[in-house]
Amino acid sequence: MTLAILLSGQGNQHPDMFALTADRPEARAVFEAARPLLGADPRDLAGAAEGLHGNRVGQVLCCVAALAGWSVIAAGLNGRSIVAGYSIGDLAAWGVAGRFDAPTVLRLAAARAEAMDAASGEGFGLAGIRGLGRDTLDGLIRRHDCHLAIRNAADSFVVGGRRDDLDPLCREALARGAQRAVPLAVATPSHTPLLAAASDRFRALLAGAELHQPPPSAPRLLSGLDGAAVFRPEAGLDKLARQVSQTLDWAACLDACGEYGATHVLELGPGHALATMAQAALPGARVHALDAFRSAEGVRDWIARP
Asked: What range(s) does the Malonyl-CoA:ACP transacylase (MAT) domain occupy (predicted)?
């Protein structure tokens, strides 16, 4: 059995995002580490259902969800495992892989969000485009002065730029035959050159973070930028900084999971967006999101089932 662990990005935070992990003793240290960064217990903050989607709060909460979920399943794993994270999930993956401890991941998540907010001006955002080929989309991006932010699949992308440019891009994409082309409820043009200053600032912060030697049982870490295995920490940290302002190739990450022979895929974090993409990209694997389970025992049994 090879388990691919996928760590969610922002966008799907919800009041019950800690339902499975909130009372687990294994996850207590993760929640406690987040409290001073958020000014409240993350479990209480999520339950209030207000402010979940602010950039700083959202990035920290997504990392809390990933690390809390990992703490619950880690002890019961047998066999090979790999881990990859989507956007902010890429940072959480360094915690799951044993490279950073939980307090370091959460502190860096808050600092990453602050750097992105400082670099991002008003009037920017992202849009989701599905149903067009890359060549067609590249022409639209150039014509509307936007940027490719994420490649999710051969015909599924996220683009970033000014709102005033994204709206006509979406209209033209639909006219060209796109199945979906909509601005997203995001005010930060993540993974585009517009955030180059944030990458530089985050790179300096990563350089000062304490790295750990991962245990032999730790999952193999894949870069969320391009799906390549991280063997040299310095190269991996550079990619972790660059992905703030460069296109993410999540489709390559899913391809890498297939190449590693993933038989099971588990999304840790709020929502099931990555699980849905993995089902399409890895039809031979058994795929689930932690959000779909009612108990820690249930997810452990699912992982152990051949």
From this structure: 6-297
